[in-house]
Amino acid sequence: MNRTRTILALLLSAWMALPAFAVQPDEVLKDPALEQRARNISAGLRCLVCQNQSIDESDAGVARDLRILIREQLLQQKTDDQIITFVVDRYGDYVLLKPRFKRETLILWLAPFVVLVAGGIFVLRRRATPVAPVEGLTEAEKARLDDLVRK
Amino acid sequence: MISEIGHFTLLLALAVAAYQTIVPQWGAWRNDAVLMASASVAALLQLALLLISFAALTHAYLTSDFSVLNVAENSHSMKPLLYKISGVWGNHEGSMLLWVAILALFGAAVAVFGRNLPDTTKARILSVQGSVGLAFLIFIAAASNPFLRLMPPPVEGNGLNPILQDPALAFHPPFLYAGYVGLSIAFSFAVAALIEGRVDAAWARWVRPWTLVSWALLTIGIGMGAWWAYYELGWGGFWFWDPVENASLMPWLIATALLHSAIVVEKRGALKIWTILLSILAFSLSLVGTFLVRSGILTSVHAFAVDPARGTFILAILAVFVGGSLTLFAVRAPSLKTGGLFATVSREGGLVLNNLLLSAACTAVFFGTLYPLALETLTGDKISVGPPYFNLTFGPIFLPLLLLMPLGTMLTWKRADVLNALRRLWWAAAAALAITLLVLVLTVRGPWLAPLGIAMGFWLIFGAAADIFQRAGIGSQPVHIAWARFKGLPRSAFGTALAHGGLGVMVIGIIVLSLWKEEHITSIKPGESIPVAGYTVVFKGIEPLSGPNYDGILGRFDIMKDKALVKDVVSEKRQFRPRGMPTTEVGLYQGFWGDVYVVLGDAASDGTYVVRASFNPMASFIWLGAFIMFMGGILSLTDRRLRIGVPKRAAAAPNAAPQPAE
């Protein structure tokens, strides 16, 4: 109960702080290529105390700390993957805005494509087996058609 | 006193809804004309009662009657008039009241405009409509009553969340709700058709205008929401794949599919079962959206568990209507007559593919939104699903849809020739490619994806134009004949072209803004400037700010180009009095080729301010595109065929042979 309250309070404070903005000038790296990488990494990591914001968008203190951490690691010549793994090891899969492809997320990743493929197969199979009686003409109709064509 | 009248009429409306649910259905069963006719009276009465109820709540807000708990919690006497009004639906209870009021409005509209519906069908539609109203009225009366009194009344109210105090957001919920709730009509039509066991061209013709209204309102509602997020949230994004946004996108996707499949039912008598299913799904997703937004489950699964009364109630409503209608569907659908055979490559086939892609896209949004909730509830594991997921699932599914759209409009019914259709589109493709090459030559920077996106947008725009040209015979017929045919085209043809072309405009805006945005975050003193994309943003100074219900500071900025002033803008940092909550107002210059977007940030001790200036290329195209799509829907709605409705014979002979041979 108490924990829930804390979480709610945290969420609320994050929401209230929302309209200001995130990346501050003192954080920005001198090398534009590195800075762009930092922002790409940040955009894929969730701010843990916010409501559906990446740390790139959030101005919460935790987000700022993480942004600075990412930039420090970039300066240490670490790769994007190494940095992301480092963050995930500390905070868990929850920080990843792009969920990892594994057993628990199999349905999540595949469902849209399964719907597409299964739907497609269903439609095509129904196409392939048309309802026979409707397709053909009856003898009487054939006779009438021949009659009309001859005219 | 006035609140008590509102409370009383709310309960009366509940009783009327109960009547409307049971009696007309019974009447249709017994074929009793009097009982069936009473459905229309009930629908109108319900609207009148709920309007009184809604007016009573609005009155409480306008007069700042803080003895009403809802007003005390969500309003403030110093709030501007507009936000006193919009405050009525800016909270849970009031928005639910608006929800049922709009539901009653649609029900009454069926009662009034559905004169040519067969008696039994109309009675059953209004009965189903009444049952939805009944469920939500019970919910309001039991768990979300906006008329509860508070004793003793406080001197001042808590105020409305400041970020909601914005003109675009004031009218965003009513549009969106009208769109959501409008889909209840398609739902009621579908359930009535399942009960009757009859779906024909006339049915599709009745359903389409209602779906079209909902679709247009959802389109503009979502567009307004995106526009609001763009300039109010202060970081220039417009779509965040937030569950609340997804909740409105899902019904939109299915409504779009429904709009297209209903054409096939109307014109060709095929896809009936599928169309019924879509009607049920579209409204079900509206209910899912209402559940997501209103149950508090999004804030956190824990918040939902702490106060589950409301969420559980809406979940129960969801289970009854979705489960009930799907069960009815499973039982009755196999007995529906299907008809209208078509080749795989045909207009029908194209529309089936459209439906397949839209449904799969909706599945991506659905799983992306609900999977984390489900996983946490079942296993306790917490995962996040953000934009990268949607880019990788929704993106590749939606892309072929855009690519194939112009082609689909060129296919003929029953059996089509792709080469023939492509031949009519070659100039559209060539023009789109030419523009793309031009863009590639003129811009050296940026990702290669951008020119491709632009090509896609122009392909849609030119494809939409090609459809009109083709139908009018422009290019293939002598000018005077083409002109006469052009003038004679039904408005729905232009509506289609506008909706498709508008999507193209939006695609261009989204792609260009996402990929070519230029942003500078700098600490500057008054007098200094920031260069951004050929403009110069000059920081003029800081002034204190005092509004009706907020204080703060404002920064003045001059946006210059080639040493000439383009626009002077103001970015504000507001501190709202009742809650002490800060918001930011963006300084915005909107040009055709892009917006200059200036946000004032925090002050530092050395007298500098953090200022973020960005150039958002072609941002206006997004809202313009949404508006064009909306206008396409409205124009289509004024089509003579829909205005006049179903030919008289269908109404006159409801018991005639269900399906004339085609």
In the CATH classification, which architecture of the largest domain in chain A applies? Answer: Orthogonal Bundle
CATH architecture of the domain at 1-160 in chain B: Up-down Bundle
In CATH, the topology of the domain at 1-160 in chain B is named Four Helix Bundle (Hemerythrin (Met), subunit A)
The portion of residues forming beta strands of chain A comes to under 5%
SS class of chain B:
alpha+beta
Largest sheet of chain B: 5 strands, antiparallel
Low-confidence stretches of chain A: 1-20
The best one-word shape of chain B is: globular
The greatest inter-chain interface is formed by: A-B, 52 and 57 residues
Count of DSSP H/I helices of chain A: 7
Radius of gyration of chain A, whole Å: 29 Å
C-alpha-based Rg of chain B, rounded = 27 Å
Distance between the termini of chain B: 62 Å
Strand order of the largest sheet of chain B: 2-3-4-5-6
Oligomer kind: heterodimer
Number-wise, the strands of chain A total 0
Features:
heterodimer; A: 151 residues; mainly alpha; Helicase, Ruva Protein, domain 3; 2 domains; elongated; B: 662 residues; alpha+beta; Four Helix Bundle (Hemerythrin (Met), subunit A); 5-stranded antiparallel β-sheet; 4-stranded antiparallel β-sheet; 9 strands; 65% helix; 11% strand
Give an overview in words.
The complex is a heterodimer of chains A (151) and B (662). In chain A, helix 2 (32-43) crosses helix 3. Chain A has helices spanning 2-16, 32-43, 61-75, 80-91, 106-128, 132-135, 139-150. Chain A has 2 domains: 2-98, Cytochrome C biogenesis protein (Helicase, Ruva Protein, domain 3, Orthogonal Bundle), CATH 1.10.8; 104-150, no CATH class. Chain A has 151 residues and is an all-alpha fold. In chain B, the strands form 2 sheets. Chain B has a 5-stranded antiparallel sheet, with no helix packed on it. A 4-stranded antiparallel sheet of chain B has the order 1-9-8-7, with helices on one face. Chain B is of the alpha+beta class and 662 residues long. Chain B has helices spanning 2-30, 33-62, 69-74, 81-86, 92-113, 119-143, 167-196, 201-232, 243-268, 272-294, 301-306, 308-332, 347-379, 387-410, 418-442, 449-472, 479-488, 491-516, 620-637, 640-644, 648-652, and strands spanning 518-524, 529-532, 535-546, 550-561, 564-576, 582-585, 587-590, 594-603, 609-617. Among the domains of chain B are: 1-160, Four Helix Bundle (Hemerythrin (Met), subunit A); 518-619, no CATH class. Residues 645-662 of chain B have low confidence and may be disordered. In chain B, helix 1 packs antiparallel against helix 6 (119-143), helix 9 packs antiparallel against helix 10 (272-294) and helix 16 crosses helix 17. In chain B, strand 4 and strand 5 (564-576) form a beta hairpin. At the A-B interface, helix 1 and helix 5 of A face helix 11, helix 13, helix 14, strand 1 and strand 6 of B.
